[in-house]
Amino acid sequence: MKLLNIDHVPGKELEALGIVKGTVVHTKNIGRDFMAAMKTLVGGELVGYTQMLNEARQIAIKRMVDEAEEMGADAVINIRYGTSSVMSGAAEVIAYGTAVKFL
Question: In CATH, what number is assigned to the domain containing residue 30?
Fold first, then answer.
């Protein structure tokens, strides 16, 4: 499965199958939340939250790919991500794009 954030596949004729998406709401445990709160006092990267968002993006991508495969797609093009805070320490991540079949 090709995953591209462009709106075409060079050298390929495409049939658009439709929009596909994967979404997840992900959180870290209370220990990581506490450590992140302490880190805000001195500044710097909140590594626990960076890891949380990376894990969430991977889950969202897998769910998007699973949906595309169910449609018989060869690729997902024009992929985009969205993130929003659901509550303290929890974020929703969505990955979406257009499922296509090569002709």
Answer: 3.30.110.70
Structural domain range at position 52: 2-102
Average pLDDT, the chain: 86
- Amino acid identity, residue 47? V
pTM of the model: 0.83
pLDDT at 35 over 60: no
Cα distance between residue 46 and residue 53, in whole Å: 11
Which of helix, strand or coil describes residue 27?
Answer: strand
Spatial distance between the Cα atoms of 18 and 97, rounded to a whole number of angstroms: 8
Total structural domains in the chain?
Answer: 1
